[in-house]
Write a structure and sequence with these properties.
EGF; Furin_repeat; two-stranded antiparallel ribbon; globular; 3 helices; mainly beta
Length: 694
């Protein structure tokens, strides 16, 4: 039997915090406790899963999923199929897959292609040594340990990495690697990597006064991390929220006092010194320090003008100061200061969406950017997000208005000769339209308009619509003070009594149930597609009659109580040693709920019907492609386990038996045929030989 490194010595249980093993993810990951320990690049992956799951490309997948059994070819050490007790892969038989850190990885895509350059026979034959790992120098490396992470202190064949090491130099035939750089939060300490002081995010050595970066909410000030709520940065500096450091206001030339601006993502100057002593504020809110001549030129139009005392640089559109000579014109883009110090400037051009009318800026027709009057017929350019549709009356049409010539999901467009979409809305995926490099189609990826607040949120709550199609809703919200209610991110003040914080919900109110990070109402879609009644607040007790969902046994108010029949990622109830995992079957259309699982174990729903194009396995725990003639049930994609009448099973396929006769009948007919043929040959021999002699 081929030797395989044992990575399952520690007890297997579902991790207490199901927040996603891969950095930045919010998926329930089913990674075993303390086994989210495979660092590849800047992300972390799983080496061992909860029972019934195995690591495929670093993520835990249900053992029955086709990506496990067919694509990756994950098996036990002895080649037997993985099952409900499996937590790791022992071998990988899939094309271009290799065994690494307890799981099967594809060499053709991330993260496997960051580990391995070439793979063959379930092994990585050439490691990508620039990715924080090295080639095992042993003559015959243990299966799955051909590549060793610089951070892998377990290793194989007497060869190890260094705990918490980021990049390293490989050893000789045995022993530990030499660490070149440590992982974030650790520093080089001889041959080891030692954790930084708790005040630091990164550091150069031991102690609180040698930090190089700080944790969230603290700022770096002369190599120390300070609390921004109690300690201010020095005079002439500001607290930069992006880098969490105290930075000098002088990065704006001539600025001596400033503050961080959330909208700009940078500093705004309040005081300038020297010859350039005027603060000049641009339309976008950014500031510079300028001299009077750079603020405004006498009798020449510009974006700013000098106040009457020549000590302030005022934006033309700033009409807040009503002092004669200091008041700009609302919505004005460029203006000219009067020679009379007490006379306000004259506007020469208005901002987009406005036109000059009797010295003021009047609004153009709806959504028009450039016009000469309020009449739509004078509109020559539309605001961003709209296109000009010419005809009997001009009209500025939203780029996404399909009925008026737009394109679904389009956010920016043009309509010079033909309509072209330049960009898509946040909840749509952008794809080139044919071969055009400046025209795109938009495919909806999330039902929330903001895509759940962008990259900080997640749109991973899958709901099967009435027609069987899948739609994606918010599982977490990236915007501050927003939470997922009915699959959309809403202000926390509109949570309707549901208990939610930090972008997700923890328990739900009456008539709501908890599902994939959000609370859903049983009386409205999409909640009603999954559950028709939630008698106990937060817990579904009657799934939708369409049978596409099943109740999670033993679910409490803080657990997900309903799950899709076709959801192989599943969910968990309880925590720690009492955690239980439940999964659906990929490709399953309708199902029955499983019995309650044992502590630390997994239970799968039993499928009763599969999606179109797939067939139910004999056990009811799989939906597979089964296009084999004469096959009545497959155990895996196109691998038959039972044949129809008139066929017999040979390996994984079915062959005709010659009508519907049994094997015994076929054998009897064969013997009779031999007897008949033998008798005929004897008669002919007698006729020609014996009669010839006569």
């Amino acid at each position: 039997v081929e030797e395989v490194t044992d990575r399952t010595k520690e007890p297997t249980r579902v991790r207490d915090t199901q927040t996603g093993c891969t950095a930045g993810s919010t998926d329930t990951d089913h990674c075993a406790n303390s086994k989210c320990d495979v660092t590849i690049g800047d992300k972390t992956y799983c080496s061992q899963c909860a029972t019934g799951y195995v690591p495929i490309n670093g993520k835990c997948v249900a053992f029955s999923d086709s990506s496990v059994t067919t694509t990756a070819g994950c098996t036990k050490n002895n080649g037997d199929p993985v099952d409900e007790s499996s937590t790791t892969c022992g071998k990988c038989t899939g094309n271009n897959y290799f065994l690494f850190m307890g799981g099967c990885y594809s060499q053709a895509k991330a993260p496997g292609n960051k580990v391995c350059t070439t793979a063959s026979g379930g092994r990585c034959t050439t490691c990508k040594t620039a990715s924080g790992l090295f080639q095992n120098p042993a003559a015959s490396p243990t299966l799955g340990s051909e590549c060793i992470l610089c951070s892998d202190a377990t290793g194989a064949n007497g060869v190890t990495g260094v705990e918490n090491c980021n990049t390293c130099t490989a050893p000789g035939q045995a022993g530990p690697a030499t660490c070149d750089t440590c992982q974030e939060g650790y520093y080089e300490d001889g041959d080891a990597c030692t954790k930084c002081h708790t005040d630091c995010a990164t550091c150069s050595e031991s102690g609180a006064s040698v930090c190089t970066s700080c944790p969230e909410g603290k700022y770096l000030k002369t190599n120390q991390c300070i609390d921004s709520t109690t300690t201010q940065c020095d005079q002439g500096t500001y607290a930069d929220k992006r880098t969490r450091t105290c930075k000098a206001c002088s990065e704006i030339a001539g600025c001596t006092a400033c503050a961080y601006n959330d909208n700009l993502g940078g500093p705004v100057c309040s005081t300038c010194s020297g010859s350039n002593n005027l603060v000049k504020t641009a339309i976008d809110g950014s500031t510079t320090c300028v001299a009077a001549a750079q603020c405004a030129v006498a009798s020449q139009p510009g974006t700013h003008f000098l106040n009457k005392d020549n000590n302030g640089c005022i934006l033309c559109s700033n009409a807040d100061d009503t002092t004669p000579g200091n008041q700009g014109v609302a919505n004005c883009k460029t203006c000219t200061k009067s020679t009379d110090a007490n006379t306000n400037p004259t506007c020469s051009a208005c901002l987009d969406g406005y036109y000059i009318s009797s010295g003021s800026c009047a609004k153009c027709a709806a959504n028009c950017a450039t016009c000469t009057s309020a009449d739509m017929s004078t509109c020559s350019k539309c605001l961003p997000g709209y296109f000009l549709k010419t005809g009997s009356t001009n009209e500025c049409v939203p780029c996404g208005d399909v009925d008026k010539g737009g394109r679904e999901g389009c956010a920016a467009c043009s309509n010079d000769l033909t309509f072209k979409c330049a960009d898509c809305r946040a909840n749509y995926r952008k794809q080139q339209n044919g071969g055009a490099s400046d025209d795109y189609t938009c495919t909806k990826t999330c039902e929330d308009e903001t895509a759940c607040g962008g990259t900080a949120g997640a749109c991973r709550a899958i709901v099967v619509d009435g027609d069987g199609s899948m739609k994606y809703y918010c599982s977490s919200c990236g915007q501050s003070n927003y939470v997922p209610i009915d699959g959309k991110c809403v202000d926390s003040s509109s949570a309707n009594g549901n208990q939610c914080s930090n972008g997700a919900c923890q328990s739900c109110a009456a008539n709501y149930f908890l599902y994939m990070g959000g609370c859903y109402n049983t009386q409205t879609t999409p909640g009603s597609l999954m559950c028709s009644k939630a008698t106990t607040a937060g817990v579904c007790d009657t799934p939708n009659a369409n049978s596409r969902y099943f109740l999670v046994p033993g679910a409490k108010v803080t657990d997900q109580s309903v799950l899709g029949c076709g959801n192989p990622l599943g969910t968990t109830t309880g925590t720690g040693d009492t955690a239980k995992a439940y999964v659906g079957i990929q490709g399953c259309k309708t199902c029955t709920a499983p019995s309650e699982a044992s502590n630390g174990a997994m239970a799968a729903a039993k499928c009763t019907a599969c999606d179109e194009g797939t067939a139910l396995t004999g056990s009811g725990y799989g939906c597979v492609t089964c296009d084999i003639a004469g096959c009545s049930a497959c155990r895996a994609d196109n691998m038959c386990e039972a044949c129809s009448d008139g066929y017999r099973l040979e390996g994984d396929t079915c062959v005709r038996t010659g009508g519907n006769l049994s094997t015994g009948a076929i054998a009897g007919i064969s013997v009779a045929a031999v007897v008949v043929v033998g008798g005929l040959v004897g008669f002919l021999c007698w006729w020609f030989i014996c009669r010839g002699k006569a």
